[in-house]
Amino acid sequence: MVDLSVRIGSVTLANPVMPGSGTLAEGLADVFDLGRLGAIVTKTITPDLRRGTLPPRLVEYRDATLFAIGIPSLGPDYYLKKTVPFFARFPTPLVASVSADTVEDFARIAARLDVPEIAAIEANISCPNLRAHGRAFGMDPVATRDVITAMKAATTRPVWAKLTPNVGDIAGFARITEEAGADAVIVANAFLGMAIDPETREPRLGNVMGGLTGPALKPLILRMVHQCAEVVSIPVIGCGGISDWSDVVEYMLAGATATQIGTATFVTPTAMPRAIEGLEAYCRRHGITRIAELIGAMRPRGGVPTAAIDPVPAKVSA
Amino acid sequence: MVDLSVRIGSVTLANPVMPGSGTLAEGLADVFDLGRLGAIVTKTITPDLRRGTLPPRLVEYRDATLFAIGIPSLGPDYYLKKTVPFFARFPTPLVASVSADTVEDFARIAARLDVPEIAAIEANISCPNLRAHGRAFGMDPVATRDVITAMKAATTRPVWAKLTPNVGDIAGFARITEEAGADAVIVANAFLGMAIDPETREPRLGNVMGGLTGPALKPLILRMVHQCAEVVSIPVIGCGGISDWSDVVEYMLAGATATQIGTATFVTPTAMPRAIEGLEAYCRRHGITRIAELIGAMRPRGGVPTAAIDPVPAKVSA
Amino acid sequence: MPSALRLADPRVPIPDVHPPYVPAASAGFPVAENLCRVLVNAAVNDDYRLMVAAAPAAALAARPGQFFHLACPPSGEDRPFLRRPMSIHAVDPAAGTITFLYKVQGAGTRGLATLAPGDRLDAFGPLGHGFAAPEGRRHLLMLARGVGLATLAPQAEAVAAAGGRVTAVLSARARDLVMAEDRLAACGCDTLVVTDTDGTSAVEALRARIAAIHAERPFDAIVTCGSDRLMRLARDFARAWGVPGEVALEQHMACAVGLCHACVRPFVDAAGETSYRRVCWDGPVFPIEEATSWSI
Amino acid sequence: MPSALRLADPRVPIPDVHPPYVPAASAGFPVAENLCRVLVNAAVNDDYRLMVAAAPAAALAARPGQFFHLACPPSGEDRPFLRRPMSIHAVDPAAGTITFLYKVQGAGTRGLATLAPGDRLDAFGPLGHGFAAPEGRRHLLMLARGVGLATLAPQAEAVAAAGGRVTAVLSARARDLVMAEDRLAACGCDTLVVTDTDGTSAVEALRARIAAIHAERPFDAIVTCGSDRLMRLARDFARAWGVPGEVALEQHMACAVGLCHACVRPFVDAAGETSYRRVCWDGPVFPIEEATSWSI
Ligand SMILES: Cc1cc2nc3c(=O)[nH]c(=O)nc-3n(C[C@H](O)[C@H](O)[C@H](O)COP(=O)(O)OP(=O)(O)OC[C@H]3O[C@@H](n4cnc5c(N)ncnc54)[C@H](O)[C@@H]3O)c2cc1C
Ligand SMILES: Cc1cc2nc3c(=O)[nH]c(=O)nc-3n(C[C@H](O)[C@H](O)[C@H](O)COP(=O)(O)OP(=O)(O)OC[C@H]3O[C@@H](n4cnc5c(N)ncnc54)[C@H](O)[C@@H]3O)c2cc1C
Ligand SMILES: Cc1cc2nc3c(=O)[nH]c(=O)nc-3n(C[C@H](O)[C@H](O)[C@H](O)COP(=O)(O)O)c2cc1C
Ligand SMILES: Cc1cc2nc3c(=O)[nH]c(=O)nc-3n(C[C@H](O)[C@H](O)[C@H](O)COP(=O)(O)O)c2cc1C
Ligand code: FES
Ligand code: FES
């Protein structure tokens, strides 16, 4: 038996695979047993009700997709009355994702969700669509600190900070959230992107800018996870371009304790259970009994790149 | 006849297509007439001689490639004696790209290249491989300002600042370089990325981290070009993921005056002349006589997304 | 069904290029990544292709108006990344087949067009809310144009099979682009072909003809798909006659199971409030009253 | 040449799936994106495939040791992005064909393996510096293992055609993986097959056998490709005999024309200084003296 469990602070996950916020909803329960997941993370909700952005909301772009959904939110009342009970049927830790326009509202919604059915609260300080030109809380060190500090004061639930990749020094932001009391840091939300149709000259998204996600961006986020894991001692959760078990392993080697899968579920709706089964097989194949051993276990390159053969002449017999 | 010419300050380009630094060399002269290009941009050189990074230097990744080449540099003497004469045979403006370890060395090499054969000097303040964890001049506003100021003082050649995309507020950096006297801003160099082999647990690149380039990243850089073009009045040169004429048009609509093509040349060695011919065809098709009309000419979305049909009942005849 | 069905034998096992992977956790769930085998994939006219595939049991539960989200292979320069939604055009549980009727539009459908008999088709579904149950309908008015036919034909067939009468208006640019006329006639539908070429597809002409049919034998339900003009007309009738109307909408999709909110369209309710609903999850079949447009 | 060549007729025009685009600016340049048509693409044993393609004139100028950078089509889950370098295994200007002998390794070569006769092949080249001119060689020692054979065979043939003698050592895991033996024999080379299975490929055994041949009929040049062990052996001989040795190296490539510096390998010169040289532009054929390893 392989022990796939990992710990995010006080929360133990049966395995390191969970969905990215906004890429799981009730509909996926028709496709596979959500009880198999490491955690269930729900779409970000806001204190107020929101419709989301103008369609078109989606552009397919090579191995990436550009989305501008916004946060269509039915608010915390609906969430507590409908969403929580729906997912409470699964034995899996439930993680709520929240966002807001002000620090006070972040605190208020964190307090509102301080219920035992919710295992942790994700702070989406990084959503790129809410503010003009994508400037979000998460791009401002002070706002980042204030949001996490206020949420920690307002709730007994663990608080996970989901960083935006649209910053220069992501490790600095990870450290700020750790100092502010975050129980884990998620690296990262979507990159801000844009596309224009050369024929009509119009932006392809109703919202002009949107989040670029998908496998093509994995190397960027992996680098960020590595940089963050080197400077914080809270768990880092990797999120970005993960398609399968091998990507999960890659993130864990880079320093992630767990991972979130987003866009891959749209391409392969069973991507998450496949990844979990693949992880188990990988561990078996490599004689790994506890998957947690992989966390940060990248090795230095072993090759001897120069002088792979001896440049000094050997004695020639002939 | 379509007028494909664009102006980057005092430099007039026959068309808006040139190579990204590090993706053109003498070898391409065997493949097509380099005289057709808008400009010839050469690989970054440094004042000192450098070997570049440890192999492996390349990982292919979906529609992107992760490179860690470093700056194998033969220095300014070789450049002036060999490289400049080789490219001087073409009628095309020659742009030298330089990098250095200190502000003083940036100035020194800019002074050294103050020769009439060089139409402009690109300041590669963004190369992600030179410093630990990719922190480069271009990630520090003060260092960015100092480099451009010092280069401007040291040379009579126009100075183009090539920004790194690994920052939070790229438009702020564009403004800094404009204020420091840059004649154009290139948006942008490569994103810093990383990849690990799950089987060996080793990083795939000899240098651990490298630059992620290629079509998959186009939406990110396009967004950055748009943000920069909105705040500076010097020309913005778009660079990132451009494969063909339609990408050039997209960048110009977003606000770029010209574009640089990198990785696409590796996939399609004639990508640049193809793009130029494609641009001419595009302009003809759209009745555009001067391609410069496209610069920043993105249109707001025209659609009427709600109530595309009248929600108020029409009088029914039957 | 075209005779081409005989080209390939459904009993031949699917070639295991990529061995089908069924995660234990997903066995027995209603919505599945069905590994099908293409039996037929042939052009029916200049615009449309018909694809018949042998499908596992889960797929055969599809109802009229539901759809599958198809993985599209790369072809030429195209690398379709996301799946593409396609209405179920026919389900034959006895033969174990599902059928799609599709128009080649872009990267995804160009890829689908390259599938040859024997190739694998990954069809995620069945998905979405289909049309109201056919039972009890006395006289269904079906207003289809172009690709709308792909979606509506199975509902017309179902109403006919349940003993109802169906008047199927088939609108197309030209006579030779009309599809499924024989299939609808064979199951007892009255078909009314109208085209742009001969001017019979003009809305006002159509309005008068349908009103005359209604006067003779009243319609008690309307379904439409494929055109904003027909949708408006259908809504006018539904309101005037006080009968339920349904429209099957389209929108580009990512997840197709209600996760991502990419596929929304605006709806305007009786109070004039606009809301966004997910075509994949709240539809693709919607009450005609609140829909604002059929496609972008 | 295998008889399979007859399978397809080179005079049939290349199907214009994507009409060949030749930018005016690139006409007449020595290195081109040659649009070829696959004539044969068949397995020669468990590991290797042979591909013959009808090629335009620019491609037919390829010399032994040069290579092409091949655009590899997507297949299955694979989406190769960059091109893949392949040595020229044969050029037949009369027939207008170029030939590659390749091993299926990963995404790119899996894609190449899917090309069928009649399909288009985009072969960028000819590229790189090949072997020294064959003229004047009296006795060439060729030390090839595995894929090295693909690269060395044309040089052996050229030396033989120029009137030189060639002793070709063909090393392989097992007897049935040895390739081109007939072709080499046909052009007059002495072939020496050694295998791991029967132990004859062991370096010291080989060293003695080759020394014996040299004692009888001295070698005046050595070429090697495909194995570090053979490269070391070749270098030992080159130094001991004072004859020029050449090795064809491999490295993963991006541009293949010296632009990107991705394909470097370390070299150590006589003074012990390490430098990086580009396999694509400075090679792929290098003086054996300074090369440090054949492949990673
Ligand atoms: C429920 C449902 C059922 C359907 N059933 C059928 C069917 O039975 N038969 C059939 O032929 N088709 C059907 N469609 C439509 C079909 O899904 C599309 O034609 C298909 O997805 C096109 O994919 P493509 O890659 O070929 O074209 P694409 O490359 O996706 O583009 C096709 C066209 O759509 C435009 N487009 C692309 N993205 C967007 C966007 N985000 N917003 C607006 N426009 C965009 C493109 O510019 C292009 O003109 C159905 C759609 C839905 C939602
Ligand atoms: C000049 C030249 C001539 C050649 N001629 C021939 C020939 O005639 N016949 C022939 O069969 N082959 C030849 N090769 C080798 C051939 O190019 C490779 O086998 C091919 O590129 C593999 O591509 P792939 O996509 O199939 O495999 P890939 O998926 O690229 O990988 C194959 C293997 O290489 C490893 N790999 C991938 N990237 C790197 C990297 N950056 N550094 C180190 N290892 C890496 C992978 O892990 C894998 O094990 C030649 C190479 C060169 C440079
Ligand atoms: C359609 C869509 C909606 C998303 N909604 C949210 C959201 O509400 N809150 C959030 O924090 N992240 C949201 N994300 C970001 C994802 O959780 C994830 O960070 C991102 O997609 C990167 O992962 P991926 O490459 O695996 O998709 C959304 C992403 C997509 C594609
Ligand atoms: C192999 C390689 C080498 C590069 N070397 C340099 C360099 O020396 N100096 C520089 O400023 N940019 C360098 N770049 C970055 C490119 O100029 C360009 O900014 C980047 O590749 C993004 O464009 P692309 O997506 O079109 O490739 C290099 C890129 C590649 C792929
Ligand atoms: S496509 Fe994702 S919600 Fe409809
Ligand atoms: S592959 Fe680009 S320099 Fe050799």
Distance between the termini of chain A: 57 Å
**Overall pLDDT of chain C, averaged?**
89
- Order of the strands making up the biggest sheet of chain C: 4-3-7-1-2-6-5
The profile of the biggest β sheet of chain A is: 8 strands, parallel
Q: CATH class of chain A, please?
A: Alpha Beta
CATH topology description of the largest domain in chain C: Rossmann fold
- Could you give the count of β-strands of chain C? 15
**So what's the overall shape of chain A?**
globular
How would you describe this protein?
The complex is a heterotetramer, with 2 copies of chain A (318 residues) and 2 copies of chain C (296 residues). Chain A has a single domain, classed as TIM Barrel (Alpha-Beta Barrel). The radius of gyration of chain A is 21 Å and the shape is globular. Chain A has an 8-stranded parallel sheet. In chain A, a hairpin with a 2-residue loop joins β5 and β6. The C terminus of chain A is likely disordered. Chain A is 29% helix and 18% strand. In chain A, α2 runs parallel beside α3 and α3 packs parallel to α4. Chain A has 8 helices and 14 strands. The longest helix of chain A is centred in the C-terminal third of the chain and has 15 residues. Chain A is of the alpha/beta class. With 296 residues, chain C is an alpha/beta fold. Chain C has 2 domains: 103 residues, Elongation Factor Tu (Ef-tu), domain 3 (Beta Barrel); 149 residues, Rossmann fold. Chain C contains 5 helices and 15 strands. Chain C has a 7-stranded antiparallel sheet. Chain C has a 6-stranded mixed sheet with strand order 10-9-8-11-12-15, with helices on both faces. Chain C has a two-stranded antiparallel sheet with strand order 13-14. In chain C, β8, α2 and β9 form a beta-alpha-beta unit. Chain C is globular, with a radius of gyration of 19 Å. The two termini of chain C are 32 Å apart. The interface between A and C is large, with 40 and 39 residues. The structure holds flavin-adenine dinucleotide (2 copies), flavin mononucleotide (2 copies) and FE2/S2 (inorganic) cluster (FES) (2 copies). The site of one flavin mononucleotide has 26 residues of chain B, from β12. One flavin-adenine dinucleotide sits at the interface of chains C and A.
